[in-house]
Amino acid sequence: MKQIITAFKEHKEFKPERHWDANVIRIAKDTITPPHYADTIEIVINHSIRGTIHIGGRQSDAESSCFYFVPPGVVHAMEYKKCDGYVTVLKINHLPLKKYLDIEAILAAEGYSLDVLPYFVADSRVLEDLEDVFWRTDSLWEVLTAILGFFRRMAAIAVEKQGNADIQENDDLRRLVEWTENNFMHTPTLEEAASILGYSRNYFCKKFKAATGVTYIGYLNCLRINYACTELKKGRSVTEVCYACGFENPSYFIKLFRTIVGVTPMKYAASQE
163 pLDDT band (50/70/90 cuts)? Predict the structure, then answer.
């Protein structure tokens, strides 16, 4: 069975007064994370994984970076190939941390912002002990010291700033992700999606694929099948779920489900019991 991790606007519950978190995702299956974004800072650390990473309209092979930096609000997508490796995801809830350490204000004082820091970093020395500290301690003093050191090193390698075109492209992607989240069960057409950004159908298709690594229809289908998985877990019938996801043909739904997930909807439902 393939693994699909879908979160349109990613939400993370942090423990009270612990505004940082670490989590491990093992890549025991082909894993797809369709385009999404979050309000938090995300650092994804590569431990011998393979695949393709898209952040803010930029692309990199997973193997070429030690870690990936995702600022808040930046649309990103991942496609991992099955392997023995894993990723560690560090999250920083920077807004509540402002009363102790205002990361954005410190960067601004040095002429930087979160948006101009590099997305793909090959040098493991930039991380230093950040991952270890996130796992090891609840000490605010120690964690804030590690976070401040990390951003000092990130600023040191930010050799060029991203232009407004990149920022506008991410804003467009985020707006489209939000719209698709609210409309994916109603079978939006390519023309409708393109009109959200004021693009022609053909230009939209090329632009979306270049920015995310997937076609818009492929992305839309991932959202719908992920929703189908959620509904099947609730015990709804395959036919009910088919129509609830916006599909009109149960045979096509079953075929697409098996293509994306790796098993039929019925087998998937049985595996969740």
Answer: very low
pLDDT tens-digit series, residues 34-60: 888 889 999 999 999 999 999 988 889
Choosing from 156, 178, 213, the residue where a domain stops is 156
Give CA–CA dist 153/67, Å, rounded. Answer: 14
The position carrying tokens 């959200």 is 196
- Transcribe 119-149 into DSSP letters: SEE--GGGTTTHHHHHHH---HHHHHHHHHH
d(CA 31, CA 17): 32
In the 8-state DSSP scheme, what is residue 157?
Answer: T
What is the rounded distance in angstroms from the CA atom of residue 7 to the CA atom of residue 25? 15
Query: Rounded to whole angstroms, how far apart are CA atoms 82 and 89?
Result: 18
- Hey, what are 187's tokens? 């079978």
Q: Are residues 116 and 24 in the same domain?
A: yes
Instruction: Tell me the residue range of the domain where 179 lies.
Output: 164-271
Asked whether residue 125 falls in the same domain as residue 201, the answer is no
- Position 232, amino acid: L
Question: Whole-model pTM?
Answer: 0.78
Statement to judge: residues 43 and 140 lie in one domain: yes
pLDDT of residue 223: 87
Q: Are residues 93 and 42 in the same domain?
A: yes
CA dist., res. 172 & res. 269, Å (int): 36
Task: Look at residues 35, 248, 178, 209 and name the one whose alpha carbon lies nearest to residue 201.
Answer: 209
- Are residues 179 and 107 located together in one domain of the fold? no
Do 11 and 144 belong to one domain? yes
